[in-house]
Specification:
Structural class: alpha/beta
Number of helices: 13
Radius of gyration: 27 Å
Strand content: 15-25%
Number of strands: 19
């Protein structure tokens, strides 16, 4: 592309950002590009759905929903807003069950006592009943085909139940979840959580399912109700158990739920974090997997899963190269001197090196144990080079590596192989950093308006970002 075209393209993009977001948008992008700095709050506006016709006429079936809500010291205004959002649903086949337990606020008790619509039922339980047991009591009273879990201070979008019903009709789903955002005490929307489609390893990293979540009642009877031993992390435990018994799990990529943002505090409850560790350890035990739940360095209360390598698989490391002796040397020496796991071979695919220092170095390393050099003097084709390496390999696991990479952690190969051995995993990738600093070069590929790009590029590798996407394992 000519320089004039590049300039025009850049000016067009700048103009587009300015028209949509003003100077703040341009500054935010410069902060990211130049300093890797992410704004504290992105510009975000929730747009309510528009009902253009009798939407329920699109449904061939009409599943019924029982929404269960445990009420404890909830601000009556917030509870009223939840009920208003439910009564405003496009889809009318619903039931709401409110459960009171330790509600000590007189105002809360009165607000629940004054609820009388036919579709709303109130259960009053003993004051010391935990949230899991209280939710189970509500489920046992439910008459709906599907159970929907909600929190008492939050609200639904008008199309929430309709979208759930559409998904059920389309997919015969056992479990459904949606995107969500937050609503602050001033009624402003923000911090949207655009969740991945079904992502079982992400669920072992963080309880990303959140709300709105919906489970088929007949299937829930098979899974079992909420476990009171994990009170506080009971919904995470339930999602993990669901994942072990069905693949009919679906994500609706729309914001259907507004979570109440009660304060700006980011403190992590120590008991809850330790409980979240036990929830995952229980899941590993049920699944018969050997792994450790490790504290995530630099964060409070977060953990990651480190799967143990089973049966010492042989790993073939395939490295294409050409006339790149100094860079290749650094790559190979980092593998040999840093890597703890030793059951591997290295296949170097030389794409016709001609520089004397490269030819000499390749000849020298070909004499080393665990290293083979395959010469392929043909026009450059990256796929072809890697395919040659695969055909010459003898490993159970294949690792494709660029010659300009350098190993940083002794257990890198074990961690990747541990994930690669899981039955549902096809390929495993790692976070790459630019040399000499903590800036991310690659943490996955995302599709942007301009085309595919590296996620989190130039951000600090250790700073917590969007739902810890570059610090924990995600599918």
């Amino acid at each position: 592309m000519k320089k004039t075209s590049l300039v025009l393209n850049l000016l067009t993009r700048i103009k587009g950002v300015f028209l949509q977001e003003g100077y703040a948008g341009i500054k935010a992008r410069l902060d990211v590009k130049l300093f890797g700095k992410i704004p504290v709050e992105r510009r975000y506006t929730y747009h309510p759905p528009i009902k253009s016709q009798n939407e329920t006429g699109l449904l061939a079936t009409a599943p019924s929903f029982s929404m269960v809500v445990v009420v404890a010291n909830t601000d009556p205004l917030f509870l009223a807003e939840l009920i208003v959002s439910i009564e405003a649903q496009w889809y009318s086949h619903w039931q709401l069950i409110l459960v009171t337990t330790a509600s000590s606020l007189v105002e809360t008790k009165q607000s629940v006592a004054n609820v009388h619509p036919a579709q709303i039922k109130v259960l009053n339980l003993m004051p010391n009943t935990g949230i899991a047991a209280a939710t189970n009591a509500a489920i046992e009273q439910a008459t709906g085909d599907y159970i929907v879990f909600l929190d008492p201070a939050d609200t639904l979008t008008e199309d929430c139940l309709f979208e759930l019903a559409l998904c059920i009709q389309r997919e015969a789903a056992d479990f459904i979840y949606s995107d969500e955002d937050s609503i602050n005490l001033k009624g402003k929307y923000g911090t949207p959580h655009f969740k991945p489609d079904w992502s079982p390893d992400a669920l072992m990293s963080v309880p990303y399912i959140g709300h709105v979540s919906c489970v088929k009642r007949a299937f829930l009877n098979q899974v079992g109700l909420l476990n009171a031993a994990f009170d506080g992390c009971h919904d995470w435990d339930l999602a993990l158990r669901i994942a072990e018994l069905t693949t009919r799990i679906y994500h609706i990529p729309k914001v259907l739920y507004h979570q109440r943002k009660m304060s700006a505090s980011t403190a992590v409850n120590v008991n809850a974090s330790l409980l979240s560790k036990k929830v995952r350890e229980a899941a590993l035990q049920r699944r018969g997997l050997v792994a450790s739940v490790e504290a995530l360095p630099g964060t409070a209360g977060h953990f990651r899963i480190n799967y143990a390598v089973q049966n010492k698989p042989f790993i073939s490391i395939i490295i294409p190269t050409r006339d790149n002796a100094a860079v290749l040397r650094r790559c190979l020496e980092s593998i040999q001197h840093v890597t703890r796991y030793q059951n591997y071979e290295i296949l170097i695919i030389d794409n016709g090196s001609v520089k004397p220092e490269a030819v000499t170095y390749l000849h020298a390393v070909s004499e080393q144990r665990q290293i083979s050099v395959i010469r392929h003097d043909a026009p450059f084709n990256f796929s072809e080079l890697n395919n040659l390496g695969v055909r010459a390999s003898t490993g159970e696991i294949l690792l494709f590596l660029n010659d300009d990479t350098e190993v940083l952690q002794a257990d890198w190969l074990e961690r990747m192989a541990g994930f690669a051995q899981l039955p549902h995993i096809g390929a495993v990738g790692a976070k790459l950093l630019y040399p000499g600093n903590k800036r991310i070069q690659h943490a996955g590929v995302i599709n942007l308006h301009e085309g595919p790009a590296h996620a989190f590029r130039m951000q600090n590798a250790d700073n917590a970002s969007y739902y810890l996407r570059h610090l924990l394992e995600y599918n």
